[in-house]
Fold this protein.
Amino acid sequence: MTERQQVLYLWTEGSSLDEKVVGWAFHDGTDGAGPQLPDAERPGHAPYPTGLRALQDGWMLLQSAQLVPTAPGQEHMNAYLEYEFVFERRIRLA
Amino acid sequence: MTETAPTDHRLSTRRMAEFVANGYLRFDAIVPADINERAIEEMGRLAAERLLPEGMKPPHSLTPLDECYPPPSAIGEYLRLPQIRGIIESLVGAHPVFDHDWVHHIPGGGSYVQPLHVDAATDTADPTFDIQLFWYPAAVAPGEGGTRFVPGSHLTRVRSSGLHRYQHIVGEQQVACDAGTVFVFHHGLWHAGQPNPGDNDRWLHKIRLNPTERQVRRWDTSDFDTIQSPRTDHVFARMQPGSVAEIFRTWHPWMGITEYRNDQMQRALLWRYLTGDDDFDVDYYLTRLEGRSQLLEDRA
């Protein structure tokens, strides 16, 4: 029996896990042998509409984004997607 | 005999405001078919020979656009089309210089993929900007290698490699278009080349141009007074329908409330530069911060 990790990044529109997902990335340590992401409810939308829905589908939260005060002079600049949640699930392969 | 005034191909104020809000403009099938057809052979030659000791070469950086790709050249014909020059003049003035260009050829079945990125280096507070023209001389079917891009991402301050982890962003688009379509990007727009699982080759000529003069009111401003909004145009107070402010309220799906408001402020700052109107604002965010001390003084 071999165990492999799948990792899911979700970026939400606010700092709470139950807010709308605006970006995602999936890395599959099983190389396709494990379960894949569900189809989005609508084309162009995320596989999970919120981070909470990922939890309900069996994903385990590894890390959530720290809330970092803006640097002086940078208060009104956008950069990266700010609210990043990292999940994993471990898949046993025969 | 009646003389006809030459057609003004410059952009309208409305189109310029859309560029500021979205970071790109799209012009479907703007390049005639005969130029597109001849350009593919020339693009193939440029791609194959540009790094060889001999053969076809791109212009040197800083070459005036008027001197790039002299005749006979289909690429030069495209760059000298009045409708293309009208777009260019509106955004970077009538005398831009060549920064660089590149041919991106993805054969049918090609699996090459780029991560999401921005070109060149991280931006500063300087509002001046370059444009990048993406010309697709052959039709691109949906999902067949068209460039992926994120509308509204152009005014962020990011490192290029920091974007690599974003496999999918809500609201992103992938180019699918007729032959001869041109997209014009603000240099900061997030984008990425995509695989081409289709049967047809995907061709793209990308050129970056630098302005050599202030980018202030270079477009056709005949609609300016009609749609320019006052600094008091405020979503929580009074609004002017059909105004620039309304265009600047475009809310891209990947933006939360903070990103949206920050971006409105950045759009307003860019519009100040483009119009020379240092008081311009949308939804009162800049005016409130800039004017607070003055209001307190006035009451003292």
Remarks:
- Chain B touches chain A at residues 155-158, 162-163, 165-171, 253-259, 262-263, 265-266, 285 (CB under 8 Å).
- The longest helix of chain B spans residues 257-275.
